[in-house]
Amino acid sequence: QAPLVESGGGLVQAGGSLSLSCAASGRTIRNYAMGWFRQAPGKEREFVAGISWSGDNTIYAEHVKGRFTISRNNAKNTVYLQMNSLKPEDTAVYYCAARVGSRWYASREYEYWGQGTQVTVSS
User: Fold this and answer.
1) pLDDT tops 80 at residue 1
2) What is the dihedral sign for C-alpha 22, 25, 28, 31?
3) 13: which DSSP letter?
């Protein structure tokens, strides 16, 4: 089983909302900064949002700022991504991962990737 398990994806109309969860399995993530990435067909995996280990600091990609909110509950070993005002261009497989390096935006700075959850936004 993958160290992280994403859930909550689905099909939604443009303007709708989805709430994604990322639960750790057999590993604690409370000491890690965490990130959400996404990958659309034919495109590279891109950074979406990140949160510090304490939850005090968050960072967002420009194209989701103001629409998406990342949060975490270390007691539950879970990270969340609330997505509002969804657009068709948000369609992708969404992944969470633990940041082991120093840069938010580079996927190679992350480990313990989950299998991803599909988000499809219809126009």
Assistant:
1) no
2) negative
3) E
Q: What percent of the chain has pLDDT over 70?
A: 98
CB hemisphere CA count around 81 (13 angstroms): 32
Within 8 A by CB and 6+ apart from 17, the residues are 82, 83, 84, 85, 86
24, 37, 89, 113, 114 from 56: Cα distances, Å: 20, 20, 29, 23, 24
The residue ranking higher by pLDDT, 85 or 31, is 85
Contacts of 67 (CB under 8 A, 6+ apart): 83, 84, 85, 86
Query: Which carries the bigger pLDDT value, residue 2 or residue 115?
Result: 115
